[in-house]
Amino acid sequence: xxxxxxxxxxxxxxxxxxxxxxxxxxxxxxxxxxxxxxxxxxxxxxxxxxxxxxxxxxxxxxxxxxxxxxxxxxxxxxxxxxxxxxxxxxxxxxxxxxxxxxxxxxxxxxxxxxxxxxxxxxxxxxxxxxxxxxxxxxxxxxxxxxxxxxxxxxxxxxxxxxxxxxxxxxxxxxxxxxxxxxxxxxxxxxxxxxxxxxxxxxxxxxxxxxxxxxxxxxxxxxxxxxxxxxxxxxxxxxxxxxxxxxxxxxxxxxxxxxxxxxxxxxxxxxxxxxxxxxxxxxxxxxxxxxxxxxxxxxxxxxxxxxxxxxxxxxxxxxxxxxxxxxxxxxxxxxxxxxxxxxxxxxxxxxxxxxxxxxxxxxxxxxxxxxxxxxxxxxxxxxxxxxxxxxxxxxxxxxxxxxxxxxxxxxxxxxxxxxxxxxxxxxxxxxxxxxxxxxxxxxxxxxxxxxxxxxxxxxxxxxxxxxxxxxxxxxxxxxxxxxxxxxxxxxxxxxxx
Length: 496
Ligand SMILES: Cc1ncc(COP(=O)(O)O)c(C=O)c1O
What we know:
One of its GO terms (molecular function) is transaminase activity. The strands form five sheets. The protein has a seven-stranded mixed β-sheet with strand order 4-10-9-8-7-5-6. It has a four-stranded antiparallel β-sheet with strand order 11-14-17-16, covered by helices on one side. It has a two-stranded antiparallel sheet with strand order 1-2. The chain folds into three domains: 29 residues, no CATH class; 153 residues, Aspartate Aminotransferase, domain 1 (Alpha-Beta Complex); 223 residues, Type I PLP-dependent aspartate aminotransferase-like (Major domain) (Aspartate Aminotransferase, domain 2). The chain is of the alpha/beta class.
């Protein structure tokens, strides 16, 4: 009996132990379960960034991009400019205690194309590009090329739709801004440097875009050199010379905005069509030269993206000599490879997006060319109204012309005012305008002489309208009674 009682007692305590073990295991599980599911703040996961319809990093990037864009100083120094406007007139005490009017001049020197900024603000969503850190790391595209095939296709389509260039029989070459292509094309068109062949003579007609000279001088190759203006060679110099000429032709011209053609017979011409778009000139016919240069800077305003392209004529190369043409092509490619190893793929992606927006709105109610034309024509009208009251300065004369793109006769809408000082004492027109509070770009920089100076009409509305000719060009003495507080930026050193 004792044994039986003892046996049932030990069975009961074993059952109790099992029970306790089971309960504590359940309790532990419950605690782990509660800890896992009921903790105060769940860990952040990409999906929890907001109601972005499944977007994670792109949504975060978009938020950051909008925050940066909301600050007025982003991009091009808007805050600085507004502050400057308040500072423009301020009273200072002279040595004798009298109040002097001290002022800062307006900088209308550069061709910075900010006049299109309001257009892109209107198309903020459509023109935005977002890509992450792992994207586009490679030097080359998936096709093994440096250039985006899709971008080339869009460039061709745009030229055809606008009617400003014949592209079907042309190669399209990209550059880091058209500035890079200026030298790349000179290099490609020059004879290879050897003792037997003299260097090619690089020339342009006055007044010319100063970068042609400064770039040629700077690279100072054995194959080519700057040889002055076409006037010296035009009569029979080029025909009788054994030299190879490379002539830069800008059409419409920077600075005087005239449409131009090559002057020298038998030269290789590089025709720079930076401004050959309907908002800046009428387009009488599609351009069809052998070598043509274009830039996004003056087309869409994206100067900071540094994107330009050249189109060169395949058919013409074949006609002259196949071997030679191959050489020209090789040298242009070699220049690009050795200097930059292609154009930034980020830039190419951005330009593709910009061209898509332009194409989508072409001839519609939000056409970039109609927008740009309205801005530029109103600036030109205002300027002409002011200058017509003056005998002191004159502007280039431009007649209204029929523009096939707009299918109507258009008033002029040039990128620059080419100002001439008419009064005898105003030998330095740059200084005369500086006296009226405007920094311009002296005609000395393009061999036109100091009687001329260029005023840019491409900048922002507040710069051009506030400036709206504060200085009276008719007054015989400059308006200021003191020197500007800061020396103005030396415009001559800037290729703009
Ligand atoms: C006639 C001309 N060509 C080329 C350029 C340079 O353009 P990018 O910004 O593409 O270097 C300019 C700039 O003002 C220009 O006026």
